[in-house]
Amino acid sequence: MEFVFTINLPSDASSIPFARRIVGSTMGQLGIDPDCVYDVEVAVTEACTNVLKHARGARDEYEVELTIDPKRASIRIKDTGRGWDPASPAGAHEGAPDPHLDLTEEGGRGIMLMRALVDDLEFTSEPEAGTIVHLTKTIVLSDDSPLSRFVDVEVPPV
After folding, report:
1. 20 part of a folded domain
2. What is this structure's pTM?
3. For labelling alongside 142, which of 38, 91, 101, 157 has CA 20 to 30 A away?
4. Is residue 96 in some structural domain?
5. Where are the alpha helices (DSSP H) in the chain?
6. By the 8 A CB rule, do 111 and 93 touch?
7. Cβ 4 vs Cβ 66: under 8 Å
8. What is the extent of the structural domain holding 67?
9. Confidence at 39, pLDDT banded by 50, 70, 90
C-alpha cells in the first residue's frame, strides 16, 4: 500500500512554505515520527528553493510528488527548465562541499543539507526537459500510525 499525491505549484517564493507544510502535514497525519517529518520538510524546502533559483527557462510552475509507503517517503521535485549538464562545473551537484564555501554565509549549502537529512538524493536532468530532484527517506512509524497495519506488506524497491 502506498499513498501518492502530486501538486503543481507556481514558481514563486511563497509556494515553498506551502510545499513544506503540505508534505509535513501529510506525513504527520500518517503517523510518521516527527523527527523524520522535520528532516523531509527541510530537505523539501531546500529542493524547492533550488528549483526557484536555478530552473532557467522554466514555465511558471513546478511539481512536487510525495509517495509514502510503510517503509519510506519518496519526494520528487520537478522543474520544467532547460536542465543542466552534470559534467559541467555549474552542474557538478555531487554534494561535496565547495572548498571556497563560506559556511557563515546564507545559501550555497542546500545540497549538502539535503544529503545529510535524507537517505538518498538523486538529480536527473535532461537538456530542455528540466530537472528532477528525488529525495528518499526511510521512515519511522508511531505505534498508532495508519500505515503500521501495512508494515508486513512487501514493498517493491523504488
Report:
1. yes
2. 0.79
3. 157
4. no
5. 15-29, 34-54, 110-117
6. yes
7. yes
8. 3-88+106-150
9. very high
Which residue has cell 557563515?
104
Q: Which amino acid would we find at residue 4?
A: V
Indicate the residue type of 100.
H
Count of C-beta atoms within a 10 Å radius of residue 95: 14
Q: Is residue 157 part of a domain?
A: no
For the chain, how many structural domains are there in total?
1
Asked whether residue 30 is assigned to any structural domain, the reply reads yes
Confidence at 95, pLDDT banded by 50, 70, 90: very low
More confident residue, 83 or 92: 83
Please give the Cα distance from 104 to 115 (Å, whole number): 19
Taking alpha carbons only, the member of 75, 77, 80, 78 closest to residue 60 is 80
Q: Do 145 and 31 touch, CB atoms closer than 8 A?
A: yes
- Identify the CATH number of the domain in which residue 22 sits: 3.30.565.10
CA angle 110, 69, 79 (to 5 degrees): 40
Please tell me which residue, 91 or 125, carries the higher pLDDT value.
125
Measure the CA–CA gap between 63 and 60, rounded to whole angstroms. 11
Cell of 68: 509514502
Mean pLDDT, rounded, for 95-121? 67
